[in-house]
């Protein structure tokens, strides 16, 4: 759903009829019940807002959803798969939360992972570069429970050791190789009904990858790091699918100006 909204709604003053969203996701084998349930949850979470016209219900983005999708767009198209501009700085976040705030602890960890942090040791997370942690954690109201520092590695600690300890590079590489196995072929997903379906699946796969990628410094990664090739494959296919997918979307989507 985030891939669909990011491609066809973000940056446009429109809301989309629920029935046409259902038609789009039917191409992916998603049931009407699942789509309606997802839309309802997103409304409840403040990500979508309803607009009624006659008997039809349309769904548009809230400012919160637009901010999340814009961040995803930057990750997909601007950040790049490899960090070639790292200056040696690390952002360090330490926290200790009582058991009574277990759900907050879960949200905190999720936000740190999304922002590219890895767990160095119990309660201590690190990420390459300078991160705006205040913005990342603002909704959680953590107060004195969190400490944030920026630092550089000093002997006997090496940055390569920090990468090895805090990040599972083998697992990250495996995810990129799985992406390549699926998409780096002469005819990706031949069972998909059309290029709109392929476009949404491609973007979803890639967004999942970049969401889990901490954007580690290139100097501490193998020369044959699979993310480099995977990024080229994604961009090539995304450009190839866009024209035909756009034509199909224009015929399927019922839009309401908002």
TrEMBL record:
Q: Which domain of life is it from?
A: Bacteria
Could you tell me which residue ranges the Transcriptional repressor PaaX-like central Cas2-like domain spans?
84-163
Record-annotated Transcriptional repressor PaaX-like C-terminal domain positions: 167-246
**Which ranges of the sequence are coiled-coil?**
none
Q: Which GO terms describe its biological process?
A: DNA-templated transcription
Q: Where is the Transcriptional repressor PaaX-like N-terminal domain?
A: 2-64
For this entry, the protein name equals Transcriptional regulator, PaaX family
């Amino acid at each position: 759903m985030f891939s669909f909204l990011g491609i066809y709604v973000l940056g446009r003053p429109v809301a989309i009829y629920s029935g046409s969203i259902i038609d789009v996701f039917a191409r992916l084998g998603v049931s009407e019940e699942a789509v309606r349930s997802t839309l309802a949850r997103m409304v409840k979470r403040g990500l979508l807002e309803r607009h009624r016209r006659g008997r039809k219900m349309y769904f548009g983005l809230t400012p919160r959803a637009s901010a999340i999708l814009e961040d995803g767009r930057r990750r997909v198209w601007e950040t790049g798969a490899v960090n070639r501009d790292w200056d040696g700085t690390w952002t360090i976040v330490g926290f200790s939360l009582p058991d009574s705030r277990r759900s907050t602890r879960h949200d905190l960890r999720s936000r740190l992972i999304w922002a590219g942090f890895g767990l160095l040791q119990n309660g201590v997370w690190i990420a390459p570069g300078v991160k705006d942690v205040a913005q990342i954690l603002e909704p959680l109201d953590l107060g004195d429970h969190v400490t944030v520092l920026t630092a550089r590695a000093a002997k006997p600690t090496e940055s390569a050791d920090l990468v090895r300890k805090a990040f599972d590079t083998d697992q990250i590489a495996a995810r990129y190789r799985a992406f390549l196995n699926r998409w780096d072929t002469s005819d990706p997903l031949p069972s998909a009904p059309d290029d709109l379906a392929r476009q949404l699946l491609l973007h979803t796969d890639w967004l999942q990858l970049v969401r889990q990628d901490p954007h580690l410094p290139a100097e501490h990664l193998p020369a044959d790091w699979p993310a480099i090739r995977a990024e080229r494959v994604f961009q090539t296919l995304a450009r190839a699918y866009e024209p035909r997918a756009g034509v199909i979307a224009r015929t399927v989507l019922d839009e309401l100006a908002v």
